[in-house]
Amino acid sequence: MTLRNFRAFLTLVLAAMLCQAAAAQTVLLNASYDVSREFYKDINAAFVAQYKKSTGKDMRVDQAHGGSSAQARAVNDGLEADVVTMNTSTDIDFLATNGVVAKDWTKRFPHNASPTSSTMLFLVRDKNPKGIKDWDDLIRPGIQVVVVNPKTGGNGRMAYLAAWGQVRKRGGTDAQAADFVAKLYKNVPVLAKGGRDATTIFLQRNLGDVLITFESEVVSIDREFGAGKVDAIHPSASILAENPVAVVERTVAKKGTQDAAKAYLNFLYSDEGQEIAAQHAIRPSNPAILKKYATTFKPIALFTVEDYFGSPAEAQKVHFNDGGQFDRLYTVK
C-alpha cells in the first residue's frame, strides 16, 4: 500500500469513527417559553452529566425558545422537538388536540405534569421612582406598563388573568374586573411578543415604568444586565402559573427518543432539578426545597386559573380566542 493510499485509508477510518460517535449520541430538542433560556441551560448541563453517569451514553440537549404559543404552533407545524416545556397548559392542550402529544399528557408526570410553577410580579426601575406598590398603581394616569401580548405568549395570558383575578379575589365582580383590565391596557404603550422581548423593551429601549412578568425574570435580569437595574414588587395577590411539560409523541416515535425524553422530563422532578429551578426563582413542586428557599419566594396570596376562570381551556375560549374579552378590551395602538 502506498503512503498516499494509506493516508486515504486512515481518512476513511477516521470519518467512519466520527460518524459512529455522532450516531451514538442522542440529541433532544426542548421547545420552551421565552424567559426559560438560562434555566434550561443549567438543567441541560446537569441532566447530560447525570445521564452519562447512569447510562454511560452521551447526550446533547438543544433549546428553542420564543413566545409559548408561537412555540406550540411551530411544533405543531413540524418543528421536531422531543419535549415541550411551557408556561400554560393551553399551549400543550393545543398540541394534544392535534395528536402531537398524548391526549392524557397531564397524567404522564406528577403534579398534572407541572414540575415547577411561578407567579407574576412587577419589575420597576431602581428605587421605584413612581412608587408602585400594588395593582391599583398600574392604572394611575401617566403610568406606562410593559406586558406581553396574551395572543402570542403565556407570559401575557398569565399577566392578564392575574390582573383580572386579583379584582375577583378582593371581592369584585367580573364587570369590575373587566373595567380594571381595560384601564390597565390603556396604559400599555406596546405589546411585547414574548417575555424576553418585554424585558428588552423595558431595559434596553427604556420604555415603561413597570414590567409585569414571571418571578424568575428577576434572576435573569440580574445575571444579564447586572444587579440593581430593577426592583421586584410583590403585589398583594397574583396568579399561580404552572409550568407544564410533555413528550412530543410524534417526534420521539420518529427518532426513537421516547426513553431519553421521559428521562429528561423526570429529571425536572429530581432533587437536583428542583434545586436548579429554585436557584432561578422558579418555584419547585417539592415542598421541602420550596421551604428551603423561603427568602426567595416571598408570600403572596395566590389564586389559580380554576378559581375564577373555570379552567385554562375556558379562559382561553372566553378571553383570548379571536373576538374574546381581550379583543373587546384592548384597542391596538
Outline the structure in words.
- With 333 residues, the chain is α/β, with parallel strands linked by helices.
- The protein folds into two domains: 164 residues, Periplasmic binding protein-like II (D-Maltodextrin-Binding Protein, domain 2, 3-Layer(aba) Sandwich), CATH 3.40.190.10; 150 residues, D-Maltodextrin-Binding Protein, domain 2.
- The protein is built from 16 helices and 14 strands.
- A five-stranded mixed β-sheet has the order 7-6-8-5-9.
- Helix 2 links the parallel strand 1 and strand 2.
- Helix 6 crosses helix 7.
- The longest helix is centred in the first third of the chain and has 22 residues.
- It is globular and about 80 Å long.
- About 3% of the residues have low confidence.
Element layout with pairings:
Layout: H1 3-24, E1 26-33, H2 37-55, E2 59-66, H3 68-76, E3 83-85, H4 89-97, H5 110-113, E4 116-118, E5 120-125, E6 145-148, H6 154-169, H7 174-186, E7 191-192, H8 195-203, E8 210-214, H9 217-225, E9 230-233, E10 237-239, E11 241-243, E12 245-247, H10 249-255, H11 258-267, H12 271-279, E13 283-284, H13 287-292, E14 301-303, H14 305-309, H15 312-320, H16 325-329
Parallel strand pairs: 1-2, 1-3, 6-7, 6-8, 10-14
Antiparallel strand pairs: 3-12, 4-11, 4-13, 5-8, 5-9
Please state the overall shape, judged from the principal axes of the Cα atoms.
globular
The unreliable regions are 13-23
Q: Just name the CATH architecture of the largest domain.
A: 3-Layer(aba) Sandwich
Class from secondary-structure proportions: alpha/beta
